[in-house]
Write a structure and sequence with these properties.
four-stranded antiparallel beta sheet, six-stranded mixed beta sheet, Rossmann fold
C-alpha cells in the first residue's frame, strides 16, 4: 500500500511538471476539492445616492447624504441667527459689523461670519399615537405633506414617528416623493403613549455630528406620557446641542372644542414645545386652521435659509457650565437696529438665536 501511495505521488508530480501547472494553483485546486463552508449571507450593497443634479442613468459620483464628522472637543461656539422685523419679515443683507454676541454678559469677537443659503438637513419628527383616538396623529400626517413642497432638490429630509418608541420611517433622502410615500404608508398607530422627550433627545443625538445646517421639525401635541427622560433632563441635554428645533402644535382643537378649554395640561404641553424651539434658536407655531400650514412651513424653510452663521472663541472660562448667549443687531452707528413696521413706526429688530451653550470643562494637565 505504501509503495502504491508513493508511486501515485511521483506520477502526479511528474504530470504537474510536464503540464507547467503552478504549484499554488494546484494547492488551490486541492483545497476546493475538500469540504467548503458556506459563504456568509451578506445584504446586497446599497448604491450611493446620486450626486445633486445627477440623473439616475449617469455614472454615480460619490456624494454621501448628510456627512458625519468625528466629534472633536474645541473651544469654538457656533451661532446661527435669524433677524426679522416686528411683523416677522426676514431681514437680509446684514454684515458682520451689525452683530454683537454677549457670552454671560461679556462681548465676544465674532471670528467667522457668513449669510448662508446652505443645503438643509432636517428630520420631520411626527407624533403618531392612538392618544385621543388617533385624531391628532392623522392631523399631523395630513399636515406634513405641505412641508415637502418647501424643500429644494438638494435638501435632505428624513421622517421619524414616535408613540411608545421612536421609529425611522424614511432615512435621509433628497427624493421628496419617497418621503411622501412614507407618510402615506402610515395607517394605524400602535400605542397610546407619546414619548416626546425620548424622541427629541434620540433625534438630537443622532444629528450631533452631522455637518451643515441641521434641524428638527416636530409635529406633535406637546404632551409626554411615558418617557424615560424628564423635562429637566431633556432641557439640560438640549443646552449641549446646536440643533435648531421648530415645533408645530397639532392639538389646538383641544382649546377650541374642549369644555372649558384645554386646561393646565395642554398649556404645559404648548409651553414644552415653545421652550424646545426658543432654546435652540427655532420657533413654535400653534395653528388653529389648516390653511395656516403652507405659510408656517414656508417660514421654517425661509428661516433656515436666511440664518446668519457666526462663530467665536469664548473669552469666558471653560467651566462646564451653561453660558447664556445674547445676540444683538445694530446699525452702522452701533445703535440697536430699528425697522419700520406696517404702519411706518420704527421698532427694534428681532433676533432669533439659540439662548446659550454648555462650555467644555477646562483641560486638566496630566
Amino acid at each position: 500500500m505504501r509503495m502504491k501511495s508513493w508511486f501515485r505521488v511521483i506520477l502526479m508530480g511528474g504530470l504537474i511538471a510536464a503540464l507547467g501547472i503552478p504549484s499554488e494553483s494546484w494547492t488551490a485546486l486541492a483545497q476546493q476539492e475538500g469540504p467548503q463552508s458556506p459563504a456568509p449571507n451578506r445584504a446586497p450593497a446599497q448604491p450611493a445616492p446620486p450626486a445633486p443634479g445627477q440623473s439616475q442613468g449617469q455614472t454615480p459620483t460619490p456624494a454621501p447624504p448628510p456627512q458625519v464628522a468625528i466629534a472633536v472637543q474645541s473651544n469654538i461656539v457656533n451661532v446661527d441667527a435669524v433677524v426679522t422685523d416686528q411683523d416677522g419679515n426676514i431681514v437680509t443683507g446684514l454684515k458682520k459689523e451689525n452683530f454683537r454676541i454677549l457670552d454671560d454678559g461679556q462681548r465676544q469677537q465674532v471670528a467667522n461670519f457668513a449669510p448662508t443659503d446652505a443645503v438643509i438637513t432636517i428630520v420631520m419628527l411626527m407624533e403618531f399615537s392612538k392618544r385621543y383616538g388617533g385624531f391628532f396623529a392623522y392631523q399631523a400626517k395630513n399636515l406634513s405633506y405641505s412641508f415637502l413642497a418647501q424643500l429644494k432638490p438638494k435638501d435632505w429630509v428624513a421622517l421619524k414617528t414616535f408613540d411608545l418608541k421612536t421609529t425611522l420611517v424614511e432615512d435621509f433622502t433628497q427624493d421628496k416623493q419617497e418621503v411622501g410615500q412614507a407618510i402615506a404608508s402610515l395607517y394605524f398607530p400602535s400605542f397610546s403613549e407619546a414619548n416626546l422627550f425620548d424622541a427629541v433627545l434620540e433625534t438630537v443625538g443622532q444629528l450631533r455630528d452631522v455637518k451643515g445646517k441641521k434641524a428638527i421639525l416636530v409635529l406633535a401635541t406637546g404632551f409626554d406620557t411615558f418617557s424615560k427622560h424628564t423635562l429637566d433632563e431633556t432641557l439640560r441635554r438640549l443646552k449641549e446641542n446646536d440643533v435648531t428645533i421648530f415645533c408645530v402644535g397639532v392639538a389646538e382643537d383641544i382649546d377650541l372644542y374642549s369644555r372649558g378649554g384645554g386646561g393646565v395640561g395642554y398649556l404645559q404641553a404648548k409651553n414644552q414645545l415653545s421652550t424646545f424651539a426658543r432654546m435652540s434658536g427655532g420657533y413654535a407655531w400653534f395653528p388653529r386652521f389648516q390653511g395656516e400650514m403652507p405659510g408656517i412651513f414656508n417660514s421654517v424653510a425661509q428661516m433656515l435659509r436666511s440664518q446668519y452663521t457666526m462663530a467665536f472663541s469664548p473669552s469666558t472660562p471653560q467651566d462646564g457650565r451653561y453660558h447664556k448667549l445674547i445676540v444683538q443687531v445694530v446699525d452702522d452707528d452701533g445703535n440697536p437696529l430699528e425697522l419700520a413696521d406696517k404702519k411706518g413706526k420704527k421698532k427694534k429688530a428681532v433676533v432669533i438665536a439659540r439662548e446659550g451653550y454648555t462650555a467644555p470643562n477646562a483641560p486638566t494637565g496630566d
